[in-house]
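User: I'm writing a short report section on ligand binding and want a predicted complex to refer to. Could you take this sequence and guanosine-5'-diphosphate and write out the structure as tokens? A short remark afterwards would be nice.
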Amino acid sequence: MPERKIRVMVAKPGLDGHDRGARILARCFRDAGFEVVYTGCHQTPEQIAAAAIQEDVDLIGLSCLSGAHRVLFPKVVELLREKDAADITVIGGGIIPEQDFSMLYDAGIKAIFTPGASLDSIVEWIKTNIKPD
Amino acid sequence: MDSTIKKICEGDVRTASRLIRDIEDKRPDANTKIKKLYAHTGKSFIIGITGAPGAGKSTLTDALITEFRKLNKTVGVLAVDPTSPFSGGAILGDRIRMQRHAEDSGVFVRSLATRGALGGLSQAAGNAIHVMEAMGKDIIIVETVGIGQQEIDIINHAHSVVVVLVPGMGDEIQTMKAGLMEIADIFVINKANRAGAGQLQTELSTMLNLSPQTADGWKPPIVAVGDAFEPATFSENTAELAQTIEEHHLYLKQSGKLTERMHRKAMTEIKDALSSCLMEPLLHSLITSGELEKLSEKIKNRKSDPYTAAEEITEKFFQKRRGK
Amino acid sequence: MYFSKEMQDASLKLTRKWEDEVQKTLKNNPDQKTRFSTVSDKEIKRLYTPEDIKDIKFAEDISVPGEFPYLRGNQVTGYRGRYWTFRMFSGMGSAQDTNQRWKMLLREGQTGLSTAFDFPTLMGYDSDSPKALGEVGKCGVAIDTLEDFLVLIEGIPLDQVTTSMTINPPATVLWAMYCAAADIKGVPLSQIGGTIQNDMLKEFIAQKTFMCPPGPSIKLISDTVEFGTKFVPNWNTISISGYHIREAGATAIQELAFTIRDGIEYVEDVIRRKKMNVDDFAPRLSFFFNSHIDFFEEICKLRAARRIWAKIMRDRFHAQNPRSMWLRFHTQTAGCSLAAQQPYNNVIRTTVEGLAAVLGGTQSLHTNSLDEVFCLPSEHAAEIALRTQQVLAEETGVANTIDPLAGSYFIEKLTNEIEEGAWDYINKIDAMGGMIAAIEKGFPQMEIAESAYKFQAQLEKGEKIMVGVNKYLSNQPYPIPLVEIDEKVGEEQIKRLQNVRRKRDNKAVKKSLDDIRNACKKGDNVMPHCIEAVKNLATLQEICDVYRDVYGEYKDPGLY
Ligand code: B12
Ligand SMILES: Nc1nc2c(ncn2[C@@H]2O[C@H](COP(=O)(O)OP(=O)(O)O)[C@@H](O)[C@H]2O)c(=O)[nH]1
Ligand SMILES: [Mg+2]
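Assistant: Sure. The structure tokens for the complex follow:
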């Protein structure tokens, strides 16, 4: 059976406009052979969760540099759970202090990447952990 | 009823989107599901939107969603973007313009990558439309890639085709002559407040007047849509566009042309299905068995020719089938 | 530059000899890499010689400070009369928190103020909007009404200190608050000074805090230019910014070109829309550039910027007043050059970048803090950053003489090349029909995205180095104290806001909002109505909602 193509969504929750990293990632994911839905800036968690479900993505990558990740990241996971879509993996990145990692992991975020993370390591993580059936 | 089918018919987005995924990924059981779904399809009105990249197709689609929602119609959107020939990946960028409808349960937007298809759509488009039909969407809008003149696959899938033009794109009209002209049911001159819009309108009407009455007996109207950044006029114009599309729909129904189009669509679907049931498995087995490689070698060395090879292949294939 | 025949011959001869030597040496001692380029990936030669600058004419191309083309600066006395303004960008939590930080910085020798607003304020939402969830006070100060603003400037002598405000879509509202506050404090508008960033084109291009579409956004900017020219003569009505363009990933040339082209767009709009004479308002236009890590490239970029603008104002807009030709600018060191790994190294990077800004002749400077990659600057980190400027000014001697690198073969050649690169872009955008048309096509956005991606790829491959990130890694922990903005800030801000809503005269608010709406519809200047509205305690969002309603909303097109 041919392998499934990995579908991911790169999303920017909240009012944050720092999109340099997100746009680099979206492009890098395309070059890694994934199909990428990019939401653009200024999305509410509700918009992100709904779009992820409609697009049947395997993974949502949230990028936030504004410090609002503590509220916005868990909200996205919670909405996915409510919509019976807890199987969609959510990872995140941006300006995220180490002391927030554990609360984010507890909330269901599966991995966090911060400044200096190599694109290779991110793609590698996805290829290892995302195996759509 | 199969639970997948039941859920889709109830409008469940997750299940529907997953089936579309199965179609795209060519899962073996996808066709089985489409078979079961088929009886529930065929009731939606399907609109194709095509035109050059950046012409404003996605922006117009977004506006049309708003208009149809005002009329309380449910809307499905399939937006096609190109797959990178280098990596096989794709950035699906149409949906971003429609995100304000993300939370509206009456709207379902699904992006597709071309995955190598050349006609402006994805191979999965036809069946993806069926999935949305089965979901009970009143209207399905299909946005094509918008790369070239060969983008005519849309006529085999849509009831009404809207071709979007913008002033100042240079040899737009030339391109049109080469292909898109014949497929348009409605023309939009988008960003019509810009310099050159009047000229485009004149050129287009002249062309339409010159061309013999279409076989359909419908003369494609031209709708001018002002700048999307001027909210008042834009919504007025897009309401008019929605209205014109409805009129065309009505025309198709009343003139009996709709059945003609449905017929054309059915023919395409058989061809596609044949390809998927015969050609694809056949090629697949030829490739995996190494047979294709061997035959090419023989042909190259003039030990055989393409027709003899093809005959041999089909012979074997049908024998095997019968054997089963 | 003029060189005698004799000197030219000698130079050519010696250069050839040197080239031979280089070839010989390379056989046994090859270079470390095959290509040497700036951080913008502009290729640099091994050696520059008189040959590189022989076509330069001193009087036309270089000249002296205070003379066209102002390559060497606007001020005839350079930094001797006055250093650049030490202006640290700061804002955090509540108005009161920020006021305290400002006072600390002034106490420690800062000479100008610069305000960072939080995301809801930047985007035109009140702190209790659902959109503001989790964002209040996080990335800057939260301002909802004039009452907050009065707390912000409490104890600040508005007639003595100039204040910059990085506020873009709601610039009219925040500036109205500043004007109203001055009025309340009894300081006449003619005596306040400062800058509103107020450059919306670079928002569409780079920073992404946008509200209304480009057309009306520019209209609001022209309103501020007109109002400032008439009533607030010491205010920089716009800060045309390359900083954000660069930080989004642009090269030095792209930063320069897009910024200057944005400037042209504003000048044209004011002349067309407000029927004003260029010399009436151009002297109050100001600029804002980045100073990145590639030392010489930055110095040359800043020099080239002055020369290009002078030429544009003279030749394109036929300005007569020399001040119209002056390009006055603030500089910030490059946040994106800093690393989370081994953060103390950031002090070193910032020092080099600050030095480049000074050698490039900046009028005002922000130096980033060592904790840039983690959080808003801690008090200690901000102090070190301020001290960095003070050391540059007072100890190093670099401010003793004006434009000390002028005449260098390399510097003059690179300045020329950067200028040429910028003209190419400017001409291209002219051909597209101007910057708004180019933005609609996604041209500058895509060029920047391309450069950003290329740089990232070079980092991945080790072709560009960041110490501690992709070379000289270390496992040592480098603990630094981090600033955390308490969630309580948001809760209290919301309480304050709701209090104001309760006590104000809602009829007066409604009337002033209607006045703004009418002004928008008629194309009148909104500024006087905004001042009236904020005095009546209309909130930031109430005014911005009027803009959104009349002008429409711009959404991120996310072009690829
Ligand atoms: C560049 C930059 C800008 C540019 C943004 C340009 C753009 N379009 O992106 C400009 C100059 C416009 C800007 C403006 C502002 N900025 Co700024 N900015 C930065 C800066 C210097 C670098 C960010 C960056 O692009 N890095 C390069 C990219 C490639 O890295 P990255 O995004 O971090 O992504 C990497 C990883 O984090 C990770 N990653 C990120 N997201 C994701 C997502 C997923 C799914 C995965 C797997 C990985 C991942 O992978 C990437 C590759 O390694 C940072 C500080 C810093 N050095 O990090 C401040 C910073 C983020 N900015 C900050 C602030 C406050 C602002 C402003 C709000 C200031 C103001 N009050 O006006 C404005 C608001 C702008 C806006 N609209 O959003 C603060 C945020 C503070 C906080 N969170 O506590 C920072 C930390 C600086 C500081 N210390 O003050 N900024
Ligand atoms: N100024 C203006 N820009 C528009 C208009 N319609 C679309 N755009 C912009 O043009 C670009 C391309 O639009 P899009 O809808 O994605 O075009 P598509 O590629 O045909 O789908 C986007 O940046 C839109 O914001 C319009 O009417 N006026
Ligand atoms: Mg599109």
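A remark for your report: Chain A has a mean pLDDT of 97. The radius of gyration of chain A is 13 Å.
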